[in-house]
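User: I'm preparing a small set of examples for a lab meeting where we compare how different chains pack in three dimensions. I only have the primary sequence for this one, and I'd like the structure in token form so I can line it up with the others. Please keep the answer compact; I'll paste it straight into my notes.
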Amino acid sequence: MFLNIMAQTTTEQAPAGFSFSSLLLPILLALFIFMMFRKQKKTQKTVQEQRTQMVPGTEVMTQFGLFGTIVSINSEENKAVMELSPGNTATVHLQALTKVVTAQPAAEEEAPVIPDDASSLTAGDRSGDAARPAGDRSGDAARPAGAAAAGDDLPADESAARADETPEETLERLNRENKKEN
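Assistant: Understood. Below is the structure token output for the 182-residue chain.
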């Protein structure tokens, strides 16, 4: 009899009418909609703040990358007149003004000097070869066993002269040295 009751309870179980998995999709949808509206509000707030900063005399950037100073704004027609350079003006739609440019202090850093050829890159590095261990010389692998690098056994003034030569002069010098070796 006990087995009979057990069999009836296992076969007559009704499916649960409510489960957590049935709530998962509506919860995710509501979260997605909430996040969309939140992002839209933030965007509208930043645009509104920028619009209040855009008055005549303000330096701005347009969507298409033009920088200029606002001369006048016509709110009724949604137009702004920008002065791109002294005497040159452009009329743009207010929505094309995307960014208020703030004056940033200019950095007093010097721009790195980019050499015209590779010989000037290696001429100054040869003095540090003696300080490096023998296995760490990156240029040694490309050289034949008995060959010396250009500038290894040169006086300082001749090495400096090679640093000032043009790419054409370097090519001619290397061709002459190659002919002497052969």
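A couple of notes for your slides: The radius of gyration is 37 Å. The CA atoms of residues 103 and 109 lie 17 Å apart.

User: Perfect, thanks.
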